[in-house]
Amino acid sequence: MRRGIATMTLDTGKCPKWLFERMVKLGREMIQVLIAEYGPDEFIRRISDPVWFQSLGTVLAFDWNASGLTTILTAALKEAIRGAERDFGIFICGGKGKTSLKTPDEIANWGAWLNLPDKYVENLIYNSKMSAKVDSALVQDGFDIYHHAFFFSKNGAWAVIQQGMNKIKKSARRYHWSSDSATDLIVEPHKGIVSDPWQQKTLNMTSRDSADNKQLTVDIVTKGKYYNLMKDIQVLRRHSSHLSQMVSMKVNKDQLTLLNLEAREFKTHPVMTEDFSRSKYLDKILWKICDEQPKSYESLLSMKGVGPKTIRALSLVSEVIYGSPASYKDPARYSFAHGGKDATPYPVNRRRMDNSIDSLKKAVEKTRFSYTEKRNAINRLNQTR
After folding, report:
1. In contact, 360 and 59? CB cutoff 8 Å
2. pTM score, whole prediction
3. b/e string for 254-291 if b means 16 or more Cβ within 10 A?
4. Quick one: which of 146, 177, 269, 348 has the fewest CB in 10 Å?
5. What does the pLDDT look like over 299-349, one tens digit per residue?
6. Which of 81-88's residues contact partners 24+ apart within 8 Å by CB, and which partners?
7. How far is CA 64 from the centre of its chain?
């Protein structure tokens, strides 16, 4: 995968039973060898690598560029370690659709079974919930999250593999998180995002370029009052439908002035198409935020009920009313794990990519597969280069 970005189309239909059973069988063999070779923590770190994850799916004989690789591979790995989680030292929670909603309970159950400290388990659950919120509310790219899987070891390493779909474009996007790279859950936390190339008008509140916008948002809801915030919201509601060109509105005392902004990231500002019609639910959430006074942007995001629309409204108030812009650069223009073909943010690290594939080749050779199965698996890996 030299490009650093994988295009994934949405799958239709179901994985054949014979293929899934085979993936479970091969997956159990691969996990056993990989953990024996590298240990459970390193396995968790590697599963968070987009190219390594994709290559593992290829070894187990699933389609290289299909969205189903994410969901089926995760399900196969989860089934492969069932009953032997403690022996392997790794645990997989969540999955596709309604199964993803069970993730916190599954983490809590494993924590109780392993007798892990309460704070440790609470932190794992928090990381799971926040990664889902970030990819639905802070990265507003048009992909709805429908798959969330949380991998962790009893030693503290964790990874998140989640996927969203864009029904209109019939494509999928996979988000990778690692406990190593997500040192700050709301500032460029991804290990990589595998998707179609750049999406236009993606509100990216995880970007460092959105830092001032986020800080101003916190100031607005903590230092101001709900009434003042609603005055700003009403300004947007009155004027958004009448803007014929990209403008920024700034309130100076009681005087409303219009300021032109340069169209550096887009030709049409999202405020042009935003629906600011009255919403009792949005108003209620904004009142709750102002009342609870979150100490940080992360605390604000973690509040129950705060979702994409709330984040978008507060971001636009900070930008359009007070002149602090957010980033609209799609973070999925490349895979962070291996760089990009256009050398952004750095050239593709071919050696690192080759090392990922070579490590899987060595694992294949050490498994108890038949000679034919080993050759087929290695041939599939060679096709990924």
Report:
1. yes
2. 0.83
3. eeeeeeeeeeebeeebbbeebebeebeebeebbebbbe
4. 146
5. 999 999 999 999 999 999 999 889 899 998 888 754 444 444 444 444 445
6. 81/28, 81/31, 85/110, 86/114, 88/31, 88/32, 88/35, 88/40
7. 20
